[in-house]
Amino acid sequence: MTAANEVMPIGAAGEKAQHAARLALPPGEATAAQQQSSKRGSLLSGVICINILILGCAMVCSSVFSPDAVSPVNVQILLSVLLLLTTAWMVYYMAYVARLDKAVLYKDGHAGPVWLRGGLVLFGVCSLIMDVFKIANYVGYMHCDSAVKIVFPAVQALFILVQTYLLWFHAKDCAQLQRNITRCGLMLCLASNLIVWMTAVTEESQHQTVIPKSDHAAGDNNRVFPPVSGNKEGECNCSHTACSIFKEAYYYLYPFNIEYSLFASAMAYVMWKNVGRLVDQHAHHKHRFRLKGILVGPVVGVAMLVAGLATFVIYEVDMAMDDKEKKELALKIHYLMNTVAVSLMSVAALIGYAIYWLDKRDHVSEKNPTRSLDIGLLLGSSLGQFLICYFNMVAIVASSATDVLNALNLACSLLTIIQIILQNVFVIEGLHREPFNEDHEGHVFANPHALHSNQETHQPSTMRRSTSVVIITTGMHVPVTLGPCWKRRLLKEISIFLLLCNVILWIMPAFGARPQFDNELGFRFYDYSTWSAVVNIGLPFGIFYRMHSVASLFEVFLIT
Amino acid sequence: MTAANEVMPIGAAGEKAQHAARLALPPGEATAAQQQSSKRGSLLSGVICINILILGCAMVCSSVFSPDAVSPVNVQILLSVLLLLTTAWMVYYMAYVARLDKAVLYKDGHAGPVWLRGGLVLFGVCSLIMDVFKIANYVGYMHCDSAVKIVFPAVQALFILVQTYLLWFHAKDCAQLQRNITRCGLMLCLASNLIVWMTAVTEESQHQTVIPKSDHAAGDNNRVFPPVSGNKEGECNCSHTACSIFKEAYYYLYPFNIEYSLFASAMAYVMWKNVGRLVDQHAHHKHRFRLKGILVGPVVGVAMLVAGLATFVIYEVDMAMDDKEKKELALKIHYLMNTVAVSLMSVAALIGYAIYWLDKRDHVSEKNPTRSLDIGLLLGSSLGQFLICYFNMVAIVASSATDVLNALNLACSLLTIIQIILQNVFVIEGLHREPFNEDHEGHVFANPHALHSNQETHQPSTMRRSTSVVIITTGMHVPVTLGPCWKRRLLKEISIFLLLCNVILWIMPAFGARPQFDNELGFRFYDYSTWSAVVNIGLPFGIFYRMHSVASLFEVFLIT
Question: How many whole angstroms separate alpha carbon A245 and alpha carbon A262?
């Protein structure tokens, strides 16, 4: 198991020294001129990204409000060009790195963790299937609709394949050569993903809008999947019979594509931040995952997980039926389950934070850009859930809905906000503490005499601390407890409990539970498109937040 | 004239040393525990700010989409509570600082520059007048409308008075005591201002929406200022005759209120960043403003300024008439003027950047948080203009408008984007260079022997540089030119020219030129509310950007 700041140098130390000499700088430092060049490169790539993004935003808005002037086909042409450019750069980058083994001398072990790459592949596969379905669907309209509608999914599929390959194998790269080209390429990649994300969110929101709008692109606006597609005023009919099935299927896969774009954006951004970084190697921790002595947290957590899975299955089954009463019951159970989960999690996080207050363990003082970035992503992605919860709360309070269903909904939203705040505080505090047992393993205690003297010198000082329990064992591995044992155990229990709860809170929205749409309050209260935009923007961030929390809590568990 | 990093220590050095001793740290450094406490405080205040903001956002959205459930009066009640809370904190802060003169030991001389404070007072006065007009208007509806509509402007007026006073006198404070309370107060202040900004943008956008929407709050949606107000379905009539005048007048003052909120937000954010900062005093530069030897830049700049003012007057006069042809002509002149201005500015910025490439002057290597923040604000505020320009360009290209008017509009938008990018690059490069003449004034040359030896030691090294022109004069003040004279002069010419052009580009939108609305393409192409939202969000940022650019270019001029 790897944690915090692990660094994987490539090649021998001599090679790196050579490289550093060639760059005329000691490892870990950069000259003023290079810093300046970095700043220029970052600025340039940032300018490119912003311009592409705002252009894309304007195009997407135009395609919504003036579908006659800017049709979805125009947006797809722009996107295809962008995706092809990005793909070309990605292929170039991989070829360049493969040819010159000095292009990447350092790897940031913390970047592109396995959960992120795993999620990327999972969502990437779903996106590929979506593209295949799209192509199959539009082949039926080829005789009367634009060929771009087939070309675009094909280009997107190619892009997803190449990008997933790149991010799987190169997410940890700290590129050293051709830095500015790499920066611009990565920013192009980021911008492309964000425009794909914007387009997908817009299409999904239009799709969920039940009220038919005659002046919008027809066919995408009705929730009942009409067999007619495109914006040709219904005159273009599908030439094969499977069209409606493909269409229904690929709409179910949209959320995965939205999620894929977010994951890829986050990874591209981290890679961009790492370009030219010379990772310092002194902080090299290894922690092992051990559940020994930890019982309550995992047990309660697994219980929550099972209960959550059960309610999720009930929810999905009941929602598929047409019985209104069953639907309401399923919603009630869902809200109740969520309310209980977030209440317990809030209490656990609060206790954890209180222990950190009592615990006098040192704070990590050194600057760690990867960790700051990680925390920034955690805080940023939590905004999505906040957005949905506050919009929900305002809708319930303002419409004075006093039935049990909405009371539960209100409680759930309010507690979710509290839970997220407390959990963020707990995770941040946990990540900023020095690991237990650090610097006390192995190297000193290999010598029995050293161990003996260590016992002598340590005992008086530990005796002075009245609350601490010191366990001294003999042998190669001596855990010198820096804080009292019960605190540490409790923190581990809490982290593992929170981790398991976050897993279930991730599973439910990621695999299709949409109480925000099934409970019609939001649609009734807000405009249809506003509410679906809020949920479609907020929910993918919420899913990302839960996955990220799981990873961060795992790290807190290892550090503790 | 003050520049860059000026610091104004308060009280004697002894007092500061005492304070540092009391805080148990050397000036300029903070202990790990304090850093941790700072981080906690920042996190807490950030969480408060984000929650208030998202709640406000949800309320504003609800008042737009469900005016029956969440009326504008509800939003005003929330805002009144927020503004009263913020006002209470501001009064407390000022009283506390006045009582304890150790609460603020350092002042950041770069924060709250005079242009920002001046702008704040100007826009504050306009906002106050707006509030008075609002109160006068709603007094006429008191017999049949909510009293909150009178209370809210009164509370807002009080808030503006107190906040302007606070920001005028305390914008430079680096608060040292009660840091976390101060952080939370400032974030409350920031959140309040941003919600006021959101509300004002929404009201202004609804107001500019000409198409009457029956389900929205009536009266606010028509551009022709009907004498009926409020959302009482037209049954509530004004009891005095001046209502319509007041109403028309206060709508003209809305943009100033939007601008005021932005300025106050920026200043509150800078103050928040400065809480607990121990400003290091070694970078204490004084630069004098001198135009000696600079001619072309000021002359061309003043010519542009006069031409701009002339076209602005023509524009405003023609727009007030009902003649369609005159309006079109005025628009053409406006676009032509802008196109010429931004073209010249782009060329100037490009030349300036080329000179910086040639110039080998050192880059400032030390970290300077105030400067980073400044550059961040510059880049951030330029996004507003980008937004408008890209939306404009997409609308023109997609609607295939080929007339002269829209060709000029397109050229103007495109060149504005290029100009902003080049100017940003020029300003950033300029601000990152070491000032000319640094460390060579006064203190060494006061002694004639030292001067003599200095001449001897300097001459050989300067002789080696073939391109440099060295002018050595005798006396107390010896400007040792680090770069060749012509480069420096040219940079000064360029900065002053860009500065003057930015002034005119600021004056036009700030005092009412709205070609985006007068040219009806945007309204026709996008949805009415979308286009007015884009312009109402983008334009205030654009105005802020121009003012900020003027200040930054002035600094570049002084450093050069």
Answer: 27
Interface mutation target, options A40, A61, A417, chain B, most CBs of B under 10 Å = A61
Report CB contact under 8 Å: A363, B32. Answer: yes
Of A22-36, A130-144, B371-385, B459-473, the range with the lowest mean pLDDT is B459-473
Specify which residues B104 forms β-bridges with.
Answer: B175
- Tell me what percent of the residues of chain B surpass a pLDDT of 70: 77
- Rounded to an integer, what distance in angstroms lies between the CA atom of residue B393 and that of residue A473? 74
Contact (CB<8Å) B69/A43: no
Q: Which residues, 6 or more positions from B325, have their beta carbon under 8 angstroms from its beta carbon?
A: none
Predicted-complex ipTM score: 0.74
Residue tagged 């300036």 (tokens): B352
The CA angle A279-A282-A284, to the nearest 5 degrees, is: 95
Of B179, B197, B199, B368, the C-alpha closest to B266 is B197
CB B301 within 8 A of CB B497: yes
Question: Which residue type is seen at B47?
Answer: V
What is the rounded distance in angstroms from the CA atom of residue B142 to the CA atom of residue B239? 9
Give per-residue pLDDT as tens, A313-360: 999 888 888 888 888 899 999 999 999 999 999 999 999 999 988 877
Question: Contact, B189 vs B163, CB < 8 A?
Answer: yes
- Between CA B279 and CA A22 the distance in angstroms is 38
Q: Is the pTM of this model over 0.90?
A: no
**Where is A175: in which H helix or E strand?**
strand A173-175
CB A195 within 8 A of CB A79: yes
- DSSP assignment of A186-215 equals HHHHHHHHHHHHHHHHHHHHHHH--S--TT
Q: Per residue in A507-522, pLDDT tens?
A: 888 877 888 888 888 8
Contacts of B43 in chain A (CB under 8 A): 425, 428
Altogether, the residues listed in chain B come to a count of 560
Q: For B425, name the nearest residue in chain A, comparing CA atoms only.
A: A43
With H, G, I as helix, E, B as strand and everything else as coil, classify residue B363: strand
pLDDT of residue A464: 39
Task: Give φ, ψ of A2 to 5 degrees.
Answer: -110, 150
Q: In chain A, helix, strand, coil percent, each to 5? A: 70, 0, 30
Interface contacts A/B by beta carbons within 8 Å = 120
Nearest to A340 by CA among A411, A281, A252: A411
Interface touch B394/A70, C-beta < 8 Å: yes
Q: How far is CA B155 from CA A204, B134, B262, B297, in A?
A: 42, 12, 19, 47
d(CA A551, nearest CA chain B) in Å: 21
- Gap from B4 CA to chain A (nearest CA, Å): 19
Q: For chain A, how many residues are written?
A: 560
Query: Which residues, other chains included, contact A92 with Cβ-Cβ below 8 Å and sequence gap of 6+?
Result: A185
Nearest to residue B559, comparing CAs of B473, B434, B457?
B434
